Model the fold of this input.
Amino acid sequence: MIIPELAALAPFALVVIAAVYFHTVTGFGLAMIIMGLASGAGIVSVATLASVVSIVTLMNSALALRGNLHHVPWAVAGVMVVAVLPASLLGVLLLDYLSSEAADVIQVLLGLVIVYGGVNFAWKPEPLKQLSGRSSFAYYAFLGGLIGGMFGIPGPPLIFQLYRQPLTLAQIRGGLIFLNAVIAGARTLFVAAQGQLYSQELVLSAICLPLVAVATLAGKRYPPPCSPQTMRRFAFALLILMGLGLIVPVLLHWL
Done:
């Protein structure tokens, strides 16, 4: 078991605190921030970091949803869970059958669609006039699970679908946090069943626990003083960055 030294853990702790706070107030972004900022530092392997992110997501979700379960739009969340889990498995299997070139093309196309959706709604962040139908929620959840299984980021379609709905920000946050918890829980169980959940992941997760508790509590008690429209515009701006995150690595590889 190799645990990073204190000098490496200190910046990692700051990244975790920032990611958990952001995730608590928006309902997404924890994995994106930790994987984006910490993976490049080489503190631990990407596989270890991914397992820690899943466990941290579960910790954050348990604390963030405590006392707030009534904000989760259960009818919507239930439909999305039913669609996202099998689609995640399908995405993993599909990636094995696709050539690397075909997977790259799909990744770029998905990135372009996500960027277009983000730009469109960031420009006009007003929500829809009425709640979308169940088939719409199932479709976006399936798409999220599919690209999550293939490329490791299920969030964009889920964020896009929920943030454009005529729901309160509390409902949107609750729904996204619950969905992220389900996905993280399924991934953790899958990794554990394969015997690939090692002591290093558990120790790092235990170290993160007090940080998660403090950052989640801060997010619940001291959210940023933003209007719903501003939060929606901010969410869609980050969605654009997620889409670019899919496109740029492939373009650099092609070049």
